[in-house]
Every structure is written in C-alpha cells, then in structure tokens.
Amino acid sequence: MGDKGGDNHSEVTDFVLAGIRVRPELHILLFLLFLTVYGMVLLGNLSMIGIIVTDPRLNTPMYFFLGNLSVIDLAYSTVIVPKAMVNILSQKKTISFAGCVAQLFLYALFMVTEAFVLAAMAYDRFIAICNPLLYTVRMSRSLCIQLVAGSYLCGWVSSILQISVTFSMSFCASRVIDHFYCDSNPIEKISCSNIFTNKMVSLSLAVLIILPTIVVIVVSYMYIVSTVLKIRSSEGRKKAFSTCSSHLGVVSLLYGTVSFVYLTPPNNPELRKVASVCYILFTPMLNPLIYSLRNKDVKDAMRKVLWKKKVLL
Q1: Average pLDDT, rounded, for the chain
Q2: DSSP state, 190?
Q3: 104 CB contacts (<8 Å, ≥6 apart)?
Q4: Number of structural domains found in the chain
C-alpha cells in the first residue's frame, strides 16, 4: 500500500490522515461535534439558497452573490467534513492518493473562489451606496455572472498550480499526513524533495489572491464610509451602514480564521488543526446566521416561508 524508501510519489497509493489527536474515549464526542456543526452548515446554507432562489424580492445582485457564497461554504465543508467524520471512528484513517489530490484541489478551489466572491460583493456594495442611480446599469446580470465565473476561474487556476507542485514531490519517509484533511503544508512535511519551489509557488499564489481581494474590499469601503458620512440624517447613515455590516462580518470571519490557520506556529500542529476546524466548520455555519440576523429582506423572506408552512400544517 505505501511507498518504499527512495520511491517516487507514483508508488504511493494512499495516505494516512492522523486527524485530531484526542483520547480514545473522546472520539465519540468529537464525532458528534463535527456531525452537529456540519448539520447546521447544511441546514443554514441550504435554507439560504432556497430562500434566495424562491423569493422574487431577493432577485438582486447582492443576493445572487450571497447565494453563490452559500454554495461555496457548503461545498468546501462537504469536501472535508464527511471524510473526517468517517476517519474519527475508523481504525485505518486512510485516503487514496487520488482522493487526496481531489480533496486538496477542491478545498483550494472553493477557498480562493470565496475570497474573490467577497471582493465582488464589496464592489457591489460600493456601487449600491456611492452610485445608487447607476446601480441597475452597472451591476447587470451579465456582469454578476462574469464576476462569479471569474472567481471560479481564479480558484481553478490556483488549485491546478497548487496540486501540480504539491504532488510532483517524492514521498520517501512516511505517508502519514499530520492533519484531518489533505493540506499542502503537512503534505510537504512528509516529502523528501526540495520544497523551495513549492514554498515560492504557495507564497506567490497567496500574494496574487490576498492582495487584489483585500485592496478591492478596503478601497470599496473607504469610498462607502466617505459617502455615508456625507448623509445628513442619522437614519440614512444607519440604513446605509446596515447594508454593509453583514458583509463586513463575513469578511472579518473569513480572513480572521484563515489567518489563524496559516499564522499558527508550525511547531504546534494540534493548534493549527483546531484553527482549521474553525474555518472549515464554524465559518460556513455562521455566515448564513450573520446574513439572516442582520438583513431585513432575508428575515422577511424566512418569515414568509415559515408562515406558509404554518398555514399548510
């Protein structure tokens, strides 16, 4: 099953995912935690998608992006969590070589796509508040589709580059990945190849992804704040800021948890795993809650759905 000393990566047929190291008696509790939070991820994001698709009042650019954000959150959790739950209760804890490649590819794809979709949402809020009379012209349906398609394209290209350099390495020492899913950093640790190229590619991708998305978000909100402060009525300022608060909350949650994951000291892998749980499970669970609790249109749509169900019952 495994590789032999000096063999190339093509000899490897599977890897072992070490998972989160807890005492055996806590495995059931860990499984139930994953199951409960993942269930909430499914419920929250599927509900959000359903509400946006079925309510004609939410047929606007902002909710088009929000629907795609829910799809992305649902997707990257599903790529990782079900396999992690199986491994918690399993003795083998293996993942095939092809499965590991697919998991890393999809995880990177959705992670990068989410960053660009959030940047597109910031641009949408900028147009809505700073140029409200031109909003329907500027944020046309075709532009929204192009922005989302471009986000997926950026995710696809970066993922191809990431898996190309990661799985071109040789694995000579061990096939045990010290994580609960296939991520590039712990995979590099079990390689006997020179990983300088991998590090340079990862760093370059991080700069090319984070820099433009952060710039778009920061510049958009600089203009938004400047415009809102010019509104004379406090009610008008409050209404303008309320349309942005949910997006800012989601952006802060995403970049906060991702920073926690990748800025955690490499000599503390268990802390990095806990940080990864926050990003992979709790972020997609909280995103629908942030938008539903802070957004009047979503709350009204949810009440409408619940009222219909009550009438039918």
Answers
A1: 89
A2: T
A3: 159, 162, 163, 166, 182, 183, 184, 187
A4: 1
Q: Is 2 inside any structural domain?
A: no
DSSP 134-180: GHHHHT-HHHHHHHHHHHHHHHHHHHHHHHHHHTTS---S--EESSS
CA–CA gap between residue 54 and residue 232 (Å, rounded): 37
Examine residue 313 and state whether it is found in any structural domain, yes or no. Answer: no
pTM over 0.70: yes
Across the strands, what pairs with 16? 94, 176
CA–CA separation, 150 and 28 (whole Å): 41
Closest CA to 277 of 294, 264, 292, 293: 264
Burial readout 54-82 (b: 16 or more C-beta within 10 A, e: otherwise): ebeebebbbbbbbbbbbbbbbbbbbbbbe
For residue 310, being part of any structural domain is answered with no
CA–CA dist 51, 1 (Å, integer): 47
Confidence of residue 244 (pLDDT cuts 50, 70, 90): confident
- Residue 170 is encoded by which pair of tokens? 């040789």
Rounded distance between C-alpha atoms, residue 108 and residue 201, angstroms: 14
pLDDT band for position 1 (cuts 50, 70, 90): very low
**Mean pLDDT lowest for which of 3-17, 186-200, 274-288, 291-305?**
3-17
Looking up tokens 């990983």, which residue turns up? 195
Q: How confident is the model at residue 9 (pLDDT cuts 50, 70, 90)?
A: very low
Report the CATH number that the domain containing residue 29 is assigned in CATH.
Answer: 1.20.1070.10
Report if residue 51 sits inside a domain.
yes
Give pLDDT tens digits for 77-99.
999 999 999 999 998 899 999 99
> 49 lies in which domain range?
14-304
Residue 35, token pair as written in the block? 């199951």
Query: Does residue 6 have a pLDDT over 50?
Result: no
CA 121 to chain centre: 15
96 forms beta bridges with 14
- Whether residue 185 is predicted with pLDDT greater than 50 in this model: the reply is yes
